[in-house]
Amino acid sequence: MPKKASPSKTTKTSSSRRKAKGSGGSLLSRRVKLSLRNPFILGGILLFAIVGPLLVFQSFAASSHTLKASNYSLSAVNAEGYAKTSLTRLITSGYGTLNAGSGCKDAFAKQAKSGSVHWGNSDVMCWNASDLSGGWSPQAIAGSGSSYSSEAPAGREIILAGMYTTGHPSGLVATPGSSGQASRMTIIDAGNRHYRHVELAKPCGSSANKVCKLDAHVGGMAWVGNTLYVAATSGMYVFNFKDMYVIGGHPVMVASKRWSFTNGSDKISTVSLDRSSTPDALVTAEYRTDSEASGKVMRWNLSGESIGGATATADTAFTKMRYMQGVAANKGSYAATSSKYDEILRWKGAGGATTGYRVPKQNAESLYIDYSRSKMWSLTELPFGSSYRFVFSLPSYDIF
Q: How many Cα neighbours within 13 Å face the side chain of 304?
């Protein structure tokens, strides 16, 4: 665990709960907190009338939330003779360098952030303007610290950032899909800030000697061993880090599977990996707006790197809030980002009381916990001013 620096403000904390304070105090610190001791209990469902992003806690029968697998064949892609590549090769050649100059750090420092978080122990990097030209929008984050991957470069802290665009930037090799979206991940070496963009694609079915664009919002990613799960709203795509090719001079990773919900109504807007549980699990969340019911958080137990064979059934399902952008879990507690409020929201157990921690206000998106380094990473979707979009960490021990 890194040495704790002095917080920017003195706050009273306890080992079980920290009340976050930022400029003017946390929004949630002025809202009604929920508790499992609330007397309104009906049929095992706890309902709480509140103000703000939290609407209601409600548990569901997990068995009603099922994913079905569709496997992709990569034989035709392999038959094309494309050269293979790897994370190590990509991050050590032909790379760019993310911005961590004074302008980036000063912009981050100006954000209204919770005083109970030790921001002196955080990392911060900013995208270069050229990285996001073509309409690329940062959404997802994952990393090697909790992956246990044989493909991760040894001794390096690797961060993966997921993005999508509805534009048509140059340099993409996959055939456009029906939605017009394209997707990519960016490999970042957090130590020296070197990075490479990798296009995300899938086989084209009958034209499988070509690859097609993923058509995914990439709202979250989870790196498990040599497997990468990518949120795709109606399910998830699954990639293997050994299925990375150089096509037309550009690195492309091709999906080998797609998980899709059988009920047509559930969503996976974001996903992360929980290494603190037994067994390990994927944690997913739904983005829902005011016109919809609160979004569900679901857990999917892992066996090795897989959540199932032909089908996968959620182990846990409960509603918590609307506007969830990212979700993470640690030892029975959960954290989520919300686009409605500029906070990371943390609660104990499925229906526990909620505490808010103010973070940069440019829509903090997906969450990733590096359990080995006691860090939690996120990234912002929108720019600060006209320039800075952040990739940042904060000490996870301040949240959980």
A: 5
Q: Any idea which residue has 């029968």 for tokens?
A: 61
How many C-beta neighbours within 10 Å does residue 364 have?
24
CATH value at residue 72? 2.120.10
3-class SS at 120?
helix
**Residues in a beta bridge with 224:** 227
What is the domain extent for residue 116? Answer: 65-398
Query: How far is it, in rounded angstroms, from Cα 360 to Cα 384?
Result: 9
3-state secondary structure 168-212: CCCCCCCECCCCCCEEEEEEEECCCCEEEEEEEEEECHHHCCCEE
Is residue 58 in some structural domain? no
38-59, pLDDT tens digit by residue?
333 222 322 233 334 444 567 7
pTM of the model: 0.85
The CA radius of gyration of the chain, in Å to the nearest whole number, is 20
Interval 153-205: pLDDT, tens: 988 999 999 999 987 777 888 877 666 789 999 999 999 999 999 999 999 86
Asked whether 262 and 232 are in contact (CB, 8 A), the reply is no
